[in-house]
Specification:
Elements lengths: L1 H40 L3 H5 L11 H16 L3 E9 L5 E8 L16 E3 L4 H5 L5 E2 L4 E3 L2 E11 L5 E10 L1 H28 L4 H19 L14 H40 L7 H15 L4 H12 L10 H4 L7 H7 L2 H9 L6 H9 L20 H16 L10 H10 L7 H14 L1
Antiparallel strand pairs: 1-2, 1-7, 2-3, 4-6, 5-6, 6-7
Helix pairs in contact: 1-5, 1-6, 1-7, 5-7, 6-7, 8-9, 8-14, 8-16, 9-13, 12-13, 13-14, 14-15, 15-16
Length: 447
Amino acid sequence: MVLLMCTAGAFSNLVICEYSIKSQFRQLRDKLTMIAHAAALRVDADTLLKIPLDKGGENTPQYKIVEKKLLEVKKIAPSLAYIYILKATKKKGIFRFLIDIKSGRGSAKRPPAYPGQGYDGGRFPEMLKAFSGPSADKTLAVDEWGAFLSGYAPVRDKNGNVAAILGIDMSAQDVYNVQKEVRRRAIAVFILAIVFSAVLGILVSRRITAPVKKLSEGARRIAAGDLRYRVKVGGADEISELAKTFNEMAASLGVARQKFLNYFYRVVQSFIRILEARDPYIGGHSDRVAGYSEKIAAEMGLPEKKTKLLKEAALLHDIGKLGIQEMILNKKGSLDEEERRRMQKHPLIGEDILKPVSPDKEILKVIRNHHERYDGKGYPDGLNGEEVDILAAIVAVADSYDAMTTDRAYRFGLSREEVIGRLKKNKGTQFNPAVVDAFIRVLRKEK
């Protein structure tokens, strides 16, 4: 029985430790992959390839253009230590630098890299995989300057061919510290369990069987990702203390995961701010759409949890426009057919950007479907009626209202009453009737 208790206690704590480490590290890799992918989308391959492969390349206009784009990414993600772009050579695993942004912690210790300087990337298998798609290293690099993790993404030309590889090094000190703390606590609880079981195991063996089973079940539930699960063990013996520590660790894991999710959303929202800064006429668009959506949801009586999720999705609804050419986004006039076709891809691009890291399928559904129409003539899937998720239908109305009331370079915004008239006119065709009615009630109350 003593041996059984020791084994169960060790199993419980080792499972929690292993799950915590893998979970935190996986989330960091996903975030790093997303940032690398988004940064690569901002780089124009034609401009990049015009940079001369010599020391003088740093002084060319093309180098400065790409450097400016990458410094914008560095500004919104301060934890990035380095951002660089490498071009492949004929020899496998051997690259040449095109650009190297050396701003960030530890950058003063790193030798400078100039265009054309060689680099052996063969020891980084994930870098080589980046020719197929975004990736990130599977292990942390720890040295006297801290812990770092690298992510990579392909820079593609207009034909979709890989022109270069973009790499970023991010400080992972927080995750490294969490890993150390989890291991320390796991070892402490493990030792505590062994001590208690060795001293009292024989005396309380009959009372231990059931609590140990509960701990084992708790370990399996936590390993499966259910961080809300708590072990219920009464009494004041060592097993109850172990259960208490187990619950504290599960709560800490839940808090840590939420912090990572919150940080991820802040990073993505920062990209939205960059997107809106490219066009002064739409500044604050995402915030306004989120605000309108929240009011519509409240008017329709949606649950608080749904309303909160809707607001998060509305803030991110235009993230896909990061993959649309700036000349199309800022065009002062109507788009031609080809430009319109490219613009209509932004919901799919947004879904692709968020899919690797977003834990909520409903948010992805809003990103993909916020341009669907009630009559089935929207895009990208041509959904109609109740096939369009109600959250996506709400964002569609809020998005259209803000677009019509906002001044643009080629026209002035419409008045509130004019827009209300258009919403009524398109109710049942473009827009969900229930959503339009709710929004109009909101606007009337505010007036």
